[in-house]
Amino acid sequence: MVSAYAAALREAGVDAAILIPAYPKALQMVDGLQKVASVTGLPGGNGALYRGRMPDTAVQMILLRMDHLYTREGLYQDAQGRDYEDNAIRFASLSAAVKIAEGVRGFKKPDIVHAHDWHSGLTPLLMKQAIVHAKSVFTIHNLAFPRAIIRSRLVQCSACLPSACPR
């Protein structure tokens, strides 16, 4: 799990932070939550960045708040098990929050960005396009998840990005 990885990095002396959507449960669980910045021009509209700490580990959490995208009954699917129709926009917005790596007031620029799973799969591309000097690494949580679905979701997400983005 990404949180365990970040906690282990922190124990080793690395200043690690995790960026996630501001799901309602996440907002409830994070300690010391405070709004730090507004972000504009994301595929799903404008949002806000909040900072807090994970309970018990003190790992910094950065939450992208866009209630119209992330305040839902389920994380990825509705109560009937159907993917939300706007998942591509939801996660293209998360990937586009790479603006933090470009420099957002109130946040330290990262040296390395770890994009985890298809939800953040466009992050390394967007970093390269924005000429962000941080390095990136991309990992996949569930290799059993059909690659064709991952590819189609990334293509859907890329369609939500500005036309300047190569496709």
Q: SSE layout and pairings?
A:
Layout: H1 2-11, E1 17-21, H2 24-29, E2 31-42, E3 45-53, E4 60-65, H3 67-70, H4 87-96, H5 99-103, E5 112-116, H6 123-129, E6 135-139, H7 147-158
Parallel strand pairs: 1-4, 5-6
Antiparallel strand pairs: 2-3, 3-4
Question: Any descriptors?
Answer:
Rossmann fold; single chain; disordered C terminus; 25% strand; two-stranded parallel ribbon; four-stranded mixed sheet; 167 residues; alpha/beta
Distance between the termini: 30 Å
Total E-strand runs: 6
CATH superfamily: Glycogen Phosphorylase B
CATH topology: Rossmann fold
* Succession of helices and strands: HEHEEEHHHEHEH
What shape does the CA trace take? globular
Task: Give a summary of the structure in a few sentences.
The protein is of the alpha/beta class. It has helices at residues 2-11, 24-29, 67-70, 87-96, 99-103, 123-129, 147-158, and strands spanning 17-21, 31-42, 45-53, 60-65, 112-116, 135-139.
